[in-house]
Amino acid sequence: MSEKKHRVSRRQFLNYTLTGVGGFMAAGILMPMARFALDPILKGEAGAELVPVAQVKDITTEPQRFDFKVKVKDAWYESEEPKSAWVYKDDKGEIVALSPICKHLGCTVNWNADKAHPNQFFCPCHYGRYTKDGTNVPGTPPMHPLDRYEYKVKDGKLYLGKAKPRGEA
Amino acid sequence: MKWTANDVDMYEKERQYIDTAVIPLIPLTLSEGAKAAVSGGEFVQLLTSEIERQLKGRLFLLPPFAYFTAEEQSARTERLNDWTSQLKESGLHHVFYVTGDRAWKEYEPDLLGELFLLPVVPFEHMDEAYKRQIVHDQTSKLLNAFISRWT
User: Across the interface, do B57 and A123 touch by the CB < 8 Å criterion?
Assistant: First the structure.
């Protein structure tokens, strides 16, 4: 009896197989399309990763320059961009990592380079100056304080991320 | 700044701050000595781009001034001086030439800009760390030379 109930007619069989196969084909076409559309959301923020830069024990209260490389992806072309940071410990023993890029026109600033103004960051291009914490000295060309790197300390190593304008980092 | 559309935008905005042009002088030849000429030129381009990174707010790195080594030195000098006077007229008061080609040394007094001669370093068979050290040293030397000309 039950056999009879479950008997599948030719019409039903064809219906099932055709929807089944058609469904697979539609899925085959639609899945990659959906994946492509969602791809930018699924991908993590580019450049958000942290890079090891220095040993924490090497960091002193005097700013030191550390050079490192960051992978940059420009469409298909991947390259390494050299970067540097001025790193020191402040009075509270907290690590400060400043970007050496002058906020005026993008030259590289140096610590203690100008004899007339010791213990300041100095930009050789247009004589911009910043105090030790990166604040721009009024009366010199830069209008904003130096950017600060996001940082993390793990296993005695200092990792740096993105440089952010002060107030955000 | 480099010779790119983005940087030229910045140049047009900040004209009063940019007073220096840097021109790499690159020799060309396809006969004997091609390799030496190429590696000298490569070193010059590497160094000038590094300098550009550090002093981008004040100098403009122009496309290289290239010449065949067979070209008469006097013709070359004239051509380069022509570039230089055009640049000076446009407000770039300092014009720095960077080259590894010793041939220019003799003609230095005839040039309108300032010549910076680099030592030629055979880079090819050098290991990475040593290479980086040399580039670093030469860059800071050249950097200080540039800065001292500004004051």
Answer: yes
